[in-house]
Every structure is written in structure tokens, then in C-alpha cells.
Write a structure and sequence with these properties.
The structure holds two protein chains of two kinds. Chain A is an alpha/beta fold. Chain A contains ten helices and 14 strands. Classes of the chains: A alpha/beta, B mainly alpha.
Amino acid sequence: MSNLLEVNKVSKNFGDYKALNEVSISVPQGSIFGLLGPNGAGKTTLIRVINQITMPDSGTVHLDGDLLNEKHIRDIGYLPEERGLYKSMKVGEQALYLAQLKGLSKAEAKTRLKYWFERLEIGDWWNKKIQELSKGMAQKIQFVVTVLHQPKLLIFDEPFSGFDPINANLIKDEILGLRDNGATVIFSTHRMESVEELCDDIALIHKSNKILDGKLVDVKREYKINTFEVGLRTVNHDALRQDLSDKFNVSNANFKSLEDELKLNIKLGQNEAPNELLNYLTSKAVVSHFVELIPSVNDIFIQTVKNN
Amino acid sequence: MNHLPLIIKREYLTKVRNKSFIIMTFLSPIIFIALIAVVAYLSQLNSDKKRVITVLDESGLVQDVFKNSENTSYNILEYMSLDDAKTLVKETQGSGLLHIDKFDNSNLKSNNITFYSKESPSLGFITNVEGRLERRLTNLNLESKGVDLAIINDTKVRVTIAQESFEGEKTSKVDSIIKLIFGGAAGYLLFMFIIIYGNMIMRSVIEEKTSRIIEVIISSVKPIQLMLGKIIGTSLAGITQFVIWIILGGFLMTIVSLIFGINMAQMQTPQQDIILQTMENPELNLQAQNILASFYNLPLANLIVAFIMFFIGGYLLYSSLYAAIGAAVDNETDTQQFIFPLIMPLILAVYIGFFTVIEDPHGTVSTVFSFIPLTSPVVMLMRIPFGVPLWQQILSLLILIATFMGTVWFAAKIYRVGILMYGKKPSYKELIKWIKY
């Protein structure tokens, strides 16, 4: 699978402040790409560079094989974190205007808007002013405007903020649908559970540098710590704990269960196989819980940011 | 992709459809005309009231200069003491009592003439009476010294200096006044236009920032396109408003004059009295007839072309700065520190226009300020009716255009950075830094 977007060693300074330091990312065609990082890391600057709002000091950006140029404006749909609409303008008029700015003809824009308004069940808002709508309603309009010109690349910065769970789900399904129809999505958020759920690839930016990137599964594999969470039913908790501590690297675990069990995290060495552990455990007690701990994106995020 | 027409259209339609804009457009001329009508009506009431002036002429020399006129009637008293006369006037509610004491026969001096009244009389009235008395008393003095008045009247010479440039272009005092009116109107119009619509542009930039739509927009269009679109769209809305004002104002003015039968020319003011007096003089009257001729003597073609060029140039220069201010701040209250230095040269230009250009249209101060870009549109527009060499106009315009380009570049820089900056109230130092971004 080829890459739709190639960002190559992009740097950007604002006066003395370095916002991006030789950041490179590759976004595969048809994937959902999570752009992560703490506040002020440089994510927004990078997104603005891709949108040609900010010009990089050095480095290149290629979209679909071509060096980024003015024509690409219509290939990108951008939902910024700081978003809004003209408050005193009517919904339909405004959506038409924004669509025309993206290069759609008026007639084409109208047809597509009709489709989307019906799909999201907001058809009767056409003649309302934005100031008459709630925040969530305005967000829906904003989403439609972002995807209307069927861009190859969609960039969503915190797309779910302001939505109730039902609408957030609706938008999530739409994003997945757009991906299935061939769009590539860059997704910037602090909600790690949605990264976990949606993203195929991730990149982590911290203090203007990219410190981590790759396929989500690869990253997780890399951060795997070979630790197993176990629940053991036994009469004497202390004796069993003592026994296990002598043989393995043991710490307390915390998970929900029905019985009063001994809950432990057991970390295995490089050469120890999980089966050996399981065999040993079954010989000692009733094993009610045996799970390999996979690091969550949240853990990886916190760990990497702290280490840097 | 050129989105400029699209942006202009949106800006124009948004402005024109805005409720307060519509209200202002139609209400302003109505209020304005209503005010004029009220003032005219009141002053008509005032002039309808007949003044009754009682004259107690103890010298018996001057009473025949007082002839009843439309608004003033004179009541001549004889053989009455001053105190009785005062009481009489008070009781009969007359407008006032003019007391002329006996003169020392050898030489008539005016140190014994007094006007008694409840309210102090208008300046025009006093000037009028003084003039009449002066003429009569002077004549009496001359006669008593054995001078024949007929000879004096015959030998009087009135001088009017004809003015002509080396190229043979004739001008006159009336010409100068007409030129002044034209130049002043053009300069002042530009001044008003910049203030009203510059502010409107600034507010619309701030609105885009506060509604946070700006980032969505500039991911589609270049900031400079957005800025120019805003400036042009708002200006077109401004021109629309101006044209409606002029048409509606003229229309209402006609209606009001018809309904109330107020002839604006009859509104009496001291200045008009003086003008009327001078009109009586046949030679001046001839000059007045020349007003129309002077109008055609103006370099009209030059005036119109220059007006359009300098108006557009000056307006764009200022409005791009207004747009930059809008981009630099978060809300309107923060704009003051930037607007003040922007308005200063504009006010300076108007002052120079109304004081220095009138005094000496081609002097050093006028000339220099008609080249400095921030003041040149106003000052040059005021100078042009007095005849400015073409090379000066072109040079000034070139400087203006060059500065305009520089300003747009500068404003676009500020704009590009500023529209994405929130929460900071920028200092000038910071603005300079933005240019390097």
C-alpha cells in the first residue's frame, strides 16, 4: 500500500521558538492515522503545514506523489480544533459558500449538501442561522462542510468534542465509512480510547520532535512487557504469593472479579514461555484469570512522553 | 483558484443584508433631513416674528435712516425723556429702544448711542444699524465741513484685481471659494469614508476571529485573498450606502421643501445678511454671476480622475491597515492602541487641508504633505482644484501606490499570523516579530 502523504523533515520556527524539528511522517493510503502528542507539542503546526496555512522553513510535503501545491486545497478536508461558522449566516448559504471555496460548483454543492443533510437528518436546518443552533448541531454542519468535496485526505482535529455519545458514534461511523470509500484520515485527539478503536497507524509528537511512529499493532508489540495478569483461587493467599515471588517477578494487580482471589501481575523473563507459567500456576491453585497485558495507547503515550 | 469574486460577493451580501446596516442606510438621511427641517422651521418662526424697535432720537439728525422692513418696524419717538421711553418700551413689550443722544454740533462722534433691550440683540441687527448710522453721520460730518457729497460719490473707485496665470488661465476670488468647496468636500468625503468603512472591515475581521471560522476559511483560500475580498466587498457595500444616502437625501429634501414650503435660501443668518448686502453691489453681483463660469473653469476632468485615483489609493491604504489591526487583536476594546496612531495622520491631513491649503495651496507645507502617503490622498485632493502640475500628481500617486503595495504586504503578514493567534494582546514589538514568521 502506497503512502498518500509524505512529510519529510519539516521544520518550522516562530521567532526563537521551534515548533517543529525535522518531523517526518508517512500516512498510508486508505488508513486512519492518529497524530498524538501533549498540548503544545506541534501537532496543530504540522496540520497547518499540511493545509498550506503555514509555510515550513525547511522540509517537503508530498501529497499523492506531488509536491504540495495550491491545487491540493481541494484534495484536503480540514476540521480544525478551533472551529466555528459565521453566526449570522444561514446554514445552507454558509455551507454552499464554504463548498464553493473548496472548488465545487454551486449546483454540485447543492446536490451533495441535500444528500448529507438528509443522511444526518438535518434537512430542516437549511434556512436557520447558526446562532439559532446548539453547539452539537453546528458541529454536524461543520463535519458535513469538511467532507462535502470528497477530499482524498481528511484531517480531523478533536472531531468528537462537543458531541453527545450518540452523535459522537454517528460521526465515528461516518468517518469509518469515508475510510472504507477510499479516503485517508488523519486524526488528532487526546481521547486515547478512540485512537485505540479507530487508528491503524500512529505518530507521537513531543516537544516539536516526532518520538514514535508506526503501525499501531507494531508499536504495541514493541511496548509489550511480557507480563500476565492472573487470578488465583486458593485458601492461603500469603503462602502462594510468597511461593510465586521466589520464582517470578510479581506485583499486585487490580481487576474486577466475582470471588476473593489472589490478583497478581507476573512478569516473565526473556526466555520464559507463558505456557510454563500457566502449568506452574494450575499446579498450585485454580486459575480463574489469565491475560497477557497489552499496553494501551494511553500507557504508551504517558510512558514515552515521560521518558523524553 | 481565484476565490476573490466569491469572497467579495459574500462580504457584500452579508453587509448589505445586515439589519443594522439597512436601518442605518434608510434612517440616517431621514434623521438628517428631519433635523434640517426642524432647524429651518424654527428659524422661519423666528424670522416671522416682527421686531419693533423704538428709536428716541434726541439729536433729530438720523431718524430718517430707519425705514420699516419686512421683519423690523421702527417706532420713532420725539420729545420724551429716556426714562419714560424705557418704561414705554418695557410696557408695550417692544424689542428694544435705540437711544441717540444730542451731538456736540462741531463734530459728530458716536459715543452717545445706546441700545436698551431685555435680551441682547443679534449681531446681524447691531451691525446693520451701526452701518446705517455710520454712513449718515459721516455724510453729515462731510457736509458740515463743506464737502460736496455728489463729488465723493462720483469719484469713488472700487478695485477688483483680476487674477491670471502666466499660461493665461483666469481666476478670481470666487474661483478660489469654489475650489475650496470642491477640494474640501472631496477630502472630507474620503476622510469620512475611511473612518466609517475602515472600522467596518476591522469589525468583520474580528468577527471571523471570534467566531473561529477563520481557520476553516484559510485552509481554502490565501489570507491575502480573504483580506482583499473583505476590503473590496465592504467598500462596495459602503458605496451602495453612500449612493442611497445621496438619492434618498435629495428626494426627501425636495419633499420636505414642498410640504413645508420652506425656502432654504430664506433662512436668515448674519452671514447671509452680509452676502445679501454685498450682492447689492453691482460689480460683486457680476462676480456672483460668474460662479457658474468659475465652476466650468475648474480642471474638471483632472479633478474627477484624480478624485477616483486618490480616493481608491487612500482608502485601500487605510483599510488594509484596519484589516491588519482587526487581525492582531481579539476584540474591539483592544483596538484603541492601534487605531489612534492610524487616525492621527488622517486628522492631520484634514487640518492641513482646511488651514494650510486654503492659505497657500502651493506652499512648502501643503506640497510636502501632498506627497507623504498617509496624508497625501486628502491633502492632494484639496490642492488639485487650485491647479497642481501633472508631474506632482503622478509622483504623489506613485508614492501612494508603492506605499499601498508595501502596506498590503505588511498587513497581509500581520493578518496571516494574527488571525490564528488567540488570547494574546499583542504589542508593537510582537507585531514586528510576526513579519519574520
